[in-house]
Amino acid sequence: MATSSDETPKTPVTEPIPAAPPAAAPPTTAPPAPVAAPKKLRPTRISGTWIAVLVAIVVLIFLLIFILQNGGNATIHFLWGQFSLPLGVALLFGAIGGALLVAVVGAARILQLRRQAKRTVPPTGRPSTSSPARRES
């Protein structure tokens, strides 16, 4: 008497799938020439100017909105005077005064550095610089 463990399960027989023919090897030629990457364009001074103009326009629009939204009068006391201005305009004058102060200090420092550079001119007649000379275009 045969037990279930003595019987071997029969699996259906499948036919093997024929292998695809090997792909034809390309003819041996020289390797393809490397494709040159396109030259990266350097930004010009004009493009930098346009970007600065666009940024300035956006800043001025925000400034105009700020002034229009802060139209309430504010009393300004300066030295012995007293006057009334819209708050946005008063703050604008304060910002302009601060910018002028920074510009005066910066101009004084630039003049100081120029005078110092003139004093340290080497005997060749050309001032010494740590940066390479600029090419004129």
Give a count of the beta strands, DSSP E runs of length 2 or more.
2
Proportion in β-strands? 5-15%
Which spans have pLDDT < 50 for at least 5 consecutive residues?
none
Overall mean pLDDT = 77
**N- to C-terminal separation?**
105 Å
Number of DSSP helices?
2
Strand numbers in spatial order across the main sheet: 1-2
Question: Percentage of helical residues?
Answer: 40-55%
Write down the Rg: 40 Å
**Major sheet size, sense and barrel closure:** 2 strands, antiparallel
State the gist of this model.
The chain is mainly alpha-helical. It has helices at 45-69, 87-119, and strands spanning 73-78, 81-86.
Q: Which terms would index this structure?
A:
two-stranded antiparallel ribbon; elongated
Indicate the topology.
Layout: H1 45-69, E1 73-78, E2 81-86, H2 87-119
Antiparallel strand pairs: 1-2
Helix pairs in contact: 1-2
Can you walk through the features of this model?
With about 140 residues, the protein is mostly helical. The mean pLDDT is about 75. It starts with about 45 loop residues before the first helix and ends in an 18-residue tail after the last helix. A two-stranded antiparallel ribbon has the order 1-2. Helices cover about 40% and strands about 10% of the residues. The radius of gyration is 40 Å and the shape is elongated. Helix 1 (about 45-70) packs antiparallel against helix 2. The chain is built from two helices and two strands.
